[in-house]
Amino acid sequence: MTKRPYNVLFIDYVSEIGGAEISMLLLLKNLNRDLFNPIVIIPNKGPLYGRITELGVQVRTMTLTKINLPLPSGYLKTVWRLIRFINSNDIALVTCHMDICNQYALPAARINRVPIVVHTINLIPDMRSFWRTFLHFPDALIANSNATA
Q: Is the pLDDT of residue 148 over 60?
């Protein structure tokens, strides 16, 4: 019996190409497709969309709304859509490629009991930073440097 590849969800907050996106593209290009089936979610069909499709990777667009208090409805809809997507696509692992994605990817992965890996490339110098809070909850954290870690 042949084992099918694990579905791995990659989430990025932007559709432009910067350092984090280049890192993700290299990972997608070199990922063992016999073991892993990558699926990418980005907010719209920007330059990143084309580069991902050129690699033969399934890419979906989804509105990704940040937490906005006191009106979190857009954010809650984003989390709900991700929860449903993870569940209905048999996702085995979630990866985030921008710190800002953690706010909706972490709860969606946790609710589905799916492990999550966060790739962080940005220095978040203020120890009290709201965004830094989310870096304590993934199953694994990958940093691009000692300073970032």
A: no
Q: What distance in Å separates the CA atoms of residue 57 and residue 38, rounded to the nearest whole number?
A: 6
In order of 44, 51, 83, 145, 147, the CA distances from 22 in angstroms are 17, 10, 26, 16, 20
Distance CA 62, CA 42 (A): 6
For residue 9, what is the DSSP state? E
What confidence tens digit (pLDDT) does each residue in 25-57 have? 999 999 999 999 999 999 999 999 999 999 999
Q: Nearest Cα to 42, choosing from 10, 78, 19, 79?
A: 10
- The domains located in the chain, with CATH, are 18-123 (3.40.50.2300)
- Per-residue model confidence (pLDDT) at position 143: 65
The tokens 């280049």 sit on which residue? Answer: 22
Mean of all residue pLDDT scores within the chain? 85
Distance CA 70, CA 21 (A): 31
> Strands 116-120 and 58-61, how do they pair?
unpaired
